Amino acid sequence: MDLNGSVDDKCENRLYVGNLDLRITEATLLKMFSPYGKIMSEDFLWHTRGPKRGEPRGFAFIQYSTKEEAILAKEKMHGRLACSRPLVVRLAGERYALEKADSSTKAVSEGHKLHLTGGGIGQTSRSAKIAAIKNKLKSLEEDNSKTKKQKLSDNVS
Fold this sequence. Notes:
Blueprint: H1 9-12, E1 14-18, H2 26-33, E2 39-46, E3 56-64, H3 67-77, E4 81-82, E5 85-86, E6 88-91, H4 92-105, H5 126-156
Antiparallel strand pairs: 1-3, 1-6, 2-3, 4-5
Organism: Medicago truncatula
Domain RRM: 13-94
Keywords: RNA-binding
């Protein structure tokens, strides 16, 4: 992406392919996407550290020679089942553009309930998560102090 927020030339013909089943190989991926145009490059991502080292990460990037080929592949392959899992296919720059637009329009108020489970578009910012945790702790402390007061009054009676 450039500073104006538009997708650069490389991202216009580069696809993100996600929700890949771990049984799908690089060769299978190339075979699935080659009917839609000339593939210039393919980046199949692998875990490089930890207990899953050497296993696929579940997503890849495919770059076509033209933007039109990439758009055609996106239209034909998005949602298509591969090993009983629907593929998530979009232009590589789209995800960032959608997340940026979503986070810039999101207003976080003090009473607003936040979902702390991350993932995908609409992910909450770090400061919003911290604010949500602080609010939750405050409400738990208030509930705890009410419970203690109730126990004390019960014991006095």
